[in-house]
Structures are given as structure tokens and as C-alpha cells.
């Protein structure tokens, strides 16, 4: 008779062991482990100030080390962040050192796969101004930006931002109505400013997220504890049920 009880215990242990990975996997997908955005703001004299082609800056995106590399500053010069925003300090000709002037571009890439999630400009309010942002990973994508000041060309993989007095801050909903915008490691992002007048504007922030979610240590610890609690509770309940069934069937008489 005792053999019947032992066999039942082995059976419920196998069931619980089989269900535990799915339960813990669900915990891994909880909000605490979802992608955490990196918002790069350009404070005075930050790590990007003075960057030229080949310069690198270290960041952490959702727990992963990420290197931003400047691949080019056009037509020449370097990055300037001394005015609390990012501009281009050109070497030749007339130039606004702390802003983008007509035709100036910044080209950069990431060392890891990322997701582009937002952009914010500064002093971007004159109707003659445009910013364009291009990445080859966006070629072939199809969506309709939700902000009327944004257009997207899927043949070029390029956003065009028109200046507007009301807003110059655009999130993922504005950009693509929530469609993910992947940026693979090593693929260039090119930001260009265009204007038909003697205007200039600057870049206030960029937002990126990791393309893969890495749970934080605290999340892993909580998941482990919750998993153990689940196993203990389920095991206790099953043991009580088997014991009751065994008693009813005369296993302990």
C-alpha cells in the first residue's frame, strides 16, 4: 500500500518539474525585464563633445555595454555640445559652432543591435528647416507616422522632420505608430540638417533601446524565489490530495 503513495509522489514531482520552466519563463517576460530606454541628452561638455570621425563614447543600454562611434562629420569639423545640445563645429566657412547649419551631417553607429525610439530637437521652429535621419535597416519598412510633421520614405529608409512651433520632440508612436525601428550593429545612422534660409537648429536628445531584453539581477532573484515558492505550494497541495485519496482508498488502513 505504501508503494501507491510513493508512486503518486513521483508523478506529481514530474508534473511540477515539467511546468516550472514555463512559469519561470513567464516571469522573465514580466514588465520588470522589458527593454529599458537609453535617452542620450547632450549636456555641456559631455562625452561626445569634440568628437570627430573615429571617436567613441561608452553607454549602457538595458544592461548591455554599447559603444557609439562617430563615423563622420560633414562637411568637416567635429561635434559640439557646449550649448546644452549637439551641433557641428565646422572648420571651414561661416558656421554656428553649437548647431547644425545647412547641409551639415553627423554619421554614427552602435556596437550592438539597438532599436531607435525617439528624437528631440532644439531651436527647430522655422518653416524653412528640415532634419533627415536615415538608416539602411529601415529600407522596405512600411508605416504611417502619426505626427503630421514627419514623413517616411521606405525606399530610402529615411525620416524627414519638418519644423513646427508646437513640438520638436518625437517618440516611437509619432515616428512609426509603434512599429519597431531596428538599427543593427555597425549600420550607419545619418542625421542631416537642411534649410533654405540662414537658419540653424540642434539635436537635444536621442532615445534607443536594446533589441534583446536582458533581465536585471533583481528580476532574476525574484523569479527564482517565486519559482521556488510555486514549486513548494504546488507540491504541498498535490501531496495533500494524494494523501486524501490514499486514505479514502484504504492505503493507510
Structure description:
By secondary structure, the protein is α+β, with helices and mostly antiparallel strands. α1 runs antiparallel to α3. Strands 2-3-6-13-8-10-9 form a 7-stranded antiparallel β-sheet, with no helix packed on it. Strands 1, 7, 11, 12 and 14 form a 5-stranded antiparallel β-sheet that branches. It is elongated. The chain contains 3 helices and 14 strands.
Uncertain residue segments: 1-13, 22-33, 214-220
Mean of residue pLDDT values: 80
Give me the count of strands. Answer: 14
Structural class: alpha+beta
How many angstroms does the end-to-end distance come to? 9 Å
Largest sheet: 7 strands, antiparallel
Topology pattern, helix = H, strand = E? HEEEEEEEEEEEHEEEH
Shape: elongated
- What is the CA-based Rg, rounded? 28 Å
Walk across the major sheet and give the strand order.
2-3-6-13-8-10-9
Number of helices: 3
Residue share in β-strands? 25-35%
Helicity range: 25-40%
Which features characterize this protein?
253 residues; alpha+beta; 14 strands; elongated; disordered N terminus
State the gist of this model.
With about 250 residues, the chain is α+β, with helices and mostly antiparallel strands. The protein contains three helices and 14 strands. Helix 1 (about 1-30) packs antiparallel against helix 3.
